[in-house]
Amino acid sequence: MNTVCPRDAAELAACVAEAGAQRMPLGVTGLATKTGLGRPVKAAAHLDLSAFNGVTFYEPQELVLSALAATRIETIERLLAEYDQELAFEPMSFAAIYGTGAGTLGGCLMANLSGPRRIKAGAARDHILGVKAVSGRGEIFKAGGRVVKNVTGYDLSRGLAGSFGTLAIVTEVTFKVLPRAPSTVTLVLQDLAPQRAISALCSAMGAPADVSGAAHLPLFAARALGFDHAITALRLEGIPPSVTERFDRLAARLVDFGRAERFETPDSAVLWRAIRDVIPLATEAQRIIWKISVAPTNGPKVVEAVQREIFAECLFDWSGGLVWLAIEPCADAAEKVIRRAVAQNGGGHATLLRAPADVRARVPVFQPQPPVLAELARRLKHEFDPYGILEPGRMAAEV
Prior knowledge:
The protein is α+β, with helices and mostly antiparallel strands. The chain has helices at 9-22, 73-81, 95-98, 105-110, 118-121, 156-160, 194-205, 219-224, 240-253, 265-276, 279-282, 299-307, 331-344, 357-362, 371-384, and strands at residues 2-4, 26-29, 45-48, 55-59, 64-68, 85-86, 128-135, 140-144, 168-176, 178-179, 183-190, 211-217, 231-238, 261-263, 288-294, 312-317, 322-327, 348-354. The chain has three domains: 1-180 and 368-399, 2-Layer Sandwich (Uridine Diphospho-n-acetylenolpyruvylglucosamine Reductase, domain 3), CATH 3.30.465.10; 183-276, Alpha-Beta Plaits; 279-362, BMC (bacterial microcompartment) domain (Alpha-Beta Plaits, 2-Layer Sandwich). It has 15 helices and 18 strands. It starts with a strand and ends in a 15-residue tail after the last helix.
C-alpha cells in the first residue's frame, strides 16, 4: 500500500483531492495507535499525518490550547501540568489494550474519548472549541475558534467528534483546559457484590459530594491490581479541606455498605489510571474486549445475563453505566449474546473494542443504528465525503 506523508494542510488537501478524482479509498493515521478500533479499512493508499505535530497556541490564563492533530497526548499533558492544568475529560490511553502508545490529540477527538471523570466533566466533544480540517472533497475548512461563545447553529467541531476520520481529516484542534485539582482522595469499599456496589455508587452520585469517579472492580479485576477483595471506588477532588469534609460526609452516607477506606493522592492516581485504561482486563492479549454503555443500575444485570451464556470478566465505571467485558476468543457468538443482554435490560450501546481483524470484519463493531439514523449518517457522510474515500468501512460495511 502506498503511504503519503503530507507536511501541511495544503499538501494534505491536494492528496485528498487527487484521491477523490481517482476514487481511491484512503486510510488515515496519526501515530497508528487506534488502528485496531473499528472495522478494518478498505484502503488503497495511506495518509500518515505524523508531521502534524506540535502545540500551536496555549494561553494558560484563558484556559485554551491548540495543537496539530498528531501531537502526542503525553506532550499535551506534560505541558498542562507545568501550569497545574489538565484535559478535564481524562482521555483514556489504548496502550494496554492495543500494545501501542497513548495516542494523539486529534485521535482523541475522532474517537470522542473520555475517562472516569466523564460523569462530571463530559467527553472530548464537550471540551472542543474549534477544528481545522480537510473534507473528502479536498477542501480546507475550519469551525469554531478559541473562545467558548463562538458557535451559532450547528456545532461542526462537536459533530466531528466520534466520526473516526470518516467525515473529514482534522489537522488542528482547540480544546478548553481546566485547572487541576490540588488534592485527590479515593473512598474505597471492599467486598461488595456488583449489584450492591452499583447501589452504593448511585447513592454517592446522588449526594452533594461532587464525585469525579465512580467504579467497581469485581474480584478478578481487583486482583489484577493487587487487591485481595472486590473494591468499589469513589474519587473526590478539590482543595484539601473540601475533600476531607466531603469524604467524611460520603463515608457516613455509605456506612451501611461497609467501612470506608481512604486512598491518598499517589495510590489514588495509580488506581484511576488503571481504571481509565482498562488495565485489569487488557493484560491477556488473546481476550476480546467489549465496551458497553447502559443505564447505571442495568450494568450488573447485563453482565449477569452475559455470564449465564459465556465466560466473561468485567469492570464497571461511570457508576455502573460503562461496562467493560473481557471474553474468550468467541466474538461471533458472543456478539449476539451481548447485544441481546443489552436490549433486554433497558437498551444501550455495545462496541467491540478489541478483536482480531477477521472478527472485526464479520461482526458489527459499533451498535447497529435504527434505519432512520443510519440514513442520516449516510447523508452526512455524502456531504463531507461524496466519493466515500475517507476510512471506508471503518464504522459500517456500507459506509
